[in-house]
Amino acid sequence: MAEDEVVARRRAADRIATVAALIAFVLIAAGVVGSLSGVAGSALRNGADYACLKDSAVTPEFEGDHLPESVSAEGAWSLVPIGVECAFIATDTGERVIMHPSPWPSLLIVGGALIGCFTGILSRRRRRFEALRAID
Questions:
Q1: Has this prediction a pTM greater than 0.85?
Q2: Nearest one of 52, 104, 46 to 80, comparing CA atoms
């Protein structure tokens, strides 16, 4: 291979690694923003219980007719999937309805991390291979 071809291949590989790293960063950032939007953002400011009771866009559906005043809420942070998990409790019957956070933010974060790790491993391996090849 000519020296020009080697340089061109290196530049192309560096561009691909840069694009993959940017994609990984965007996916992780989108996952973090998605996990902190909605109820989770309110939970950071006011606490998980308050966020579930006052800021949840989801109305729990209980069996029978329950007025909103007869419902209490408990909120807790969840790591998998990342976000706030809300448990709505009918105070007169004790019935519980649990609302889990969306799995999409967690999937975006994991996908971005996998792409970043894969890109880093391939980039490091390629550089190591080139260094060994230069010694020969």
A1: no
A2: 104
